[in-house]
Model the fold of this input.
Amino acid sequence: MSAIASTELVRQQNSLRMLSALRRHGNLSHTDLAELTGLSSGTVSAITAELERSQLIHRSEQQAASGRGRPRVLFQPNSGFGYVAVVVISSDAVQYSLVDFTGRLMDRFGEGRSSTSSDVFAREILNGLVRLAGRSKIAPGDILHVSISSKGLVDPATATLVWSPVLGSGHVDFRTVLAPHFRAQIYLYNETLLVADALWRQRRESAGESASLAALSLGHSIGLGVARGIGEGKAEVTAPNFGHMLHVPGGALCRCGARGCVEAYCGFYGILRAAFEVPTNTIPAKFVPLPEVEKIAASARAGNRMAVLAFRQAGLALGSGLSRLFSLYGPMPIIVTGPGTRFLDLISASMREGMEQTSVVRMGGLPQITIEPDEQTLVFDGHMGLALSRLDGDIVMSGMAVPQIS
Ligand SMILES: [Zn+2]
Done:
């Protein structure tokens, strides 16, 4: 790398550190900034001047408490520089959130979804985003970053939803649909990848831990996100297609059309099918409302044999799936989330039994399993962690100007 290129890279990294410190702590003085970022006073002066010129941050003056002496100069991110839109797609609804440049949530609303056509669905998302901008009286062009998540298979490189529980294999190419209407960069993530990323960041910040972990989402569908520490406080986060990994060759029919997937045994529709002794080649229900599964759980807790077996079978599928994960990547703590966490009392014994099928667990002991029921907050935290750092990166790399459509 040439000397000029490496100086430019250092300048960009320092700008990103300053923006991130200001967003995390709010109002900061020159001295605070130098302390928090570890940068020299001269570097802090040069970068704050540049960030101010680009209108990414602004300054305010605070009179000393005594009312005498020079006022303190405090810096803060410019909330109106640009906005982030977050779109969370779930089986039966879509939630839209708008966040300003300081990271503050400005607006949120949800809409039911009914369309099973990918073209109609893409237009619904476009209309939702236009409404999101309109409700806060900003122009769609002021949204600089759109962060979308869904369950299922996504192609992050092209922001295309490849397979989802509701639309099946009807592809949705979000970048093509949305880019002409926004100045924004469009990103698409698997939902459980965001959960794993949020949990990993939380643990790194609260306990300085950067060990690997896996997030397991239980509900109508099954998701897995794996965050593997790669050193220097960084993680590689992936969402393997765990729910559609083979559990029983030629086994129960899955929503994806294959037979014997993990999800066909432990997704809500798999539990429903087993509890009512419906043939396993029956086409799975599109969506099973939570109260239906609650009824089966109540019946299992009252000792109903088929209901007990349905949950037991679900736990075995999850446990043996996890045992394969440990064989490939080594044991790691599991954090269970999603609406299915309320049935863990019925699942955990057989889940442990499934995990113990691998020698890694038999020799090294069971990995720690914890429950984080509030999946929606983790998904949103995952969006925010990635969206703001990527937005800052896009702005700083483009020379502090508002990024253009890719
Ligand atoms: Zn499947």
Residues 244, 254, 256, 258, 261, 263 surround zinc ion (CB under 6 Å). The mean pLDDT is 91.
